[in-house]
Amino acid sequence: MIKETSNKSKGKSPSGDSGADHATLSDIFNQDEPRVNWHDETLWFVRTKRDKAVNTIPEWELLRETASQIKHNVLSNLSAYLEQFEEKAIANGVQVHWAADAKEHNEIVHSILKKHSINRMVKSKSMLTEECHLNDYLSKNGVEVIDTDLGERIVQLADEPPSHIVLPCIHKKKEEIGDLFHIHLGTAAGEADPQVLTEAARQDLRSAFLTRRAALTGVNFAVAETGEIVVCTNEGNADMGVHLADVHIASMGIEKIIPERKHLGFFLRLLTRSATGQPITTYSSHFKKPRPGQEMHIILVDNGRSRQLGREDFRNSLKCIRCGACMNTCPVYRRSGGHSYHYAISGPIGAILAPNLDMKKYADLPFASTLCGSCSNVCPVKIDIHDQLYKWRQVLVKEGHVSPVKAAGMKGMAWMFSFPALFNIAGKSGRWFMKYFPFMVSNKLNPWYKEREMPAPPKESFREWYARREKNNRK
Amino acid sequence: MRVGLFIPCYVDQFYPNAAIATLQLLEKFGVDVVFPKKQTCCGQPMANSGFSHLSSECDELFVENFSEFDYIVCPSGSCVLHIKDHLHSAKSPDKAKAIRKKVFELVEFLTDILEIKELKAKFPFKVGIHQSCHGQRGLKLSQMSELVAPKFSKPETLLKMVDGLELINLTRVDECCGFGGTFCVAEEAVSSKMGKDRVADHIQNGAEYITGADLSCLMHMEGILKRQKSNVKVIHIAEILNADPNP
Amino acid sequence: MSSRDKILAAVRASQPQLTELPQVNIPQSFDDLALRFTTVATAIGGKVYEINAIEEIKEIISGQFGEAPRIISSFSELGDIAEIDIQTSDPHALENVDLAILKAELGVAENAALWVPEENTMQRVLPFITQHLALVVSKNSLVPAMHQAYEIIGDRDYGYSAFIAGPSKTADIEQSLVLGAHGPRSMTVFILN
After folding, report:
1. Is A452 touching B (CB cutoff 8 A)?
2. Which of A270, B126, C106, C172, by CA, is between 20 and 30 Å from A9?
3. Domain B126-241 is in which class?
4. What mean pLDDT comes out for the span B188-215?
5. Total structural domains in chain A?
């Protein structure tokens, strides 16, 4: 039987609207170093599985480049593809809705459910509904939602948002999941075997699938040519939900369009190898028409995407196919956890998507990176993620979203570096570094000094040595 | 061939030996090297913090200092990448463009321009290479582990010419050390943790020295090593390549 | 202005200059497809048998799926062990199916995915709700990679179809792989010579 399904507000969650920035949340995450090591190793393991998988495909880089170009064509012709998709979907017997923002999306979902007097629904993985805070909205309107992806179900029971777009509960240890299941699903106290816990969830969710009349799914790809949508899962939860329900609602961002069915060949080859190192997900389900007697709805959601499309430097972020590879490879993500990004989509890709929605709230995210560039290299559609992080920094500073203290320091430094004579005098006295490179001061207030020693100042700088040598040569 | 020696500000101040080794090494190979004394900084610390609009004076100064040379060589991949990608000049756009093409990081200058095939140096230690991100992923000093492409490593090619040197293998060949400019203080917790993990990989695999083509990363790891009171040292690759062949 | 028109207008105003779709032919090696398929299928948790006739399936599966399992199959040759017709259109009635034995149209060697078009599912939910799934694919329907699969699928019309690769699985708990998440606990593939 279904127990408490926890549709409570997510305000208390680690990444709720506490207002804390990435650095602060990372600092908290890093207070438990063994746990950071475990988190890092777990995600690195996924990265190595990805490496192993892609190295079996000699044409891998050609696939990436082609997929990136296909997506570029999509962005350049998106309005026409959307109209084509809508026309085909309607001809397939699907009801198509358009939502300008999260609020409208949530209202559409609710209105469909209301029409059928449905107040309980199953939902498979959809990051878009996380972005729109659909569960909260429906809960407030008396609709119970059960997330059916195991990882999402776990974070739902824990009253937390997912910390990773592909591995929603990757931040949780099996013992913690065991405790949750003991409370909510009645498993034995202390039971932490993944096999046993998964079986318990299977039994529990099976009864949900069998009793819910509506199923909401995300969309991985929507084919303009045919009006069909493709949903990829390993668990089979999207199909279990949809095929047993009277109403299928599919929510998709408008950027999920691909032009032709044959292009799925490229994206399905790239998606799961990048995500988990599997050659393909267990299920790649092509939904084109509702089954007889069933209703199928597709909601096309903008929610800032058309605005991002208009930002030349950032529009490529809309190519994202949500594989999560950039998170698994990101040395910062692995050591700060997904919740430190305080946005539905975490990691490097989240950091270039979020500021489009709210520059002030997410001004910290593009700075949560060393710009190492590994994200761009694993991206299956070759989004220039780290370059966009750099570019967002310039935009955020110009728009005034960076603290005035930092701005003042930077201005002083820029001014200093533009006067060679001053630089020399300051450098000789050794003071300018202390003043303008904040990490160069050895005291307990200096973040550098917390775990790192300062470089030992040498007897003479290079330019002093060079001047001395010149003088000696002249003699 | 006249080469302008571009020594990043923090190298000048804190790691003069790396700069001296760079100069001497280039001179050993018969290059006419000049250090323009009016140089300051490439402007990267500002730009990476989102203040690229403030670095135009730095840019103009850089153009003034370096446009006369055939090549500009620098023992820091990160600073070179910044110049290559972001140097602009309102006064002399053509000169800036030319500089972007003729600025080289030391290792790539040795392998690609001077085409060094052998050198006389002895360094009888176990050495781990730190692949700095900007040098590796930006300048392509070595192949990136994410790509399905043939492997190569320019620093490794050079280090293999050094007598007595034993290269160690790392568990994660090209993970970032966590320095990241102002990231190292703005995101202290993650930055330190990344540094500790990077150092641990070298230590576990038996390194006595950690070397690389970017002193900012080495400075970061040195800070960690010293705090841990480790015997493992960092050393810029120029100092190894310029090491005494008969110590 | 409706949201539809607003969104389309905003997209039209924002989209960059039109770029062409790439025309790329991905080279594929045509080595031993059945061997490659079998290797991958096994690696992702499936079992593969080569058979010469559908009837051979009976002996292979005998005893594997418990005593007196409820089996549904679209193969009339299996009429003595399986229901070969689903009497009701209510998908919930399939809740207690132990094994479904269905026909796949295509098998993809690179990832062991099998293309199951709607008409082969008997009911859309069947390949998912069944405790165990077996798919039969003829050896000459194996293709090297997804590109060839979509070439064959072409612009065929269907209401629903799926690629299925291996048993249902999850690794959501600490990356520990568990077979049998919500769908079938096992996947058996019969390659028909």
Report:
1. yes
2. C172
3. alpha beta
4. 97
5. 2
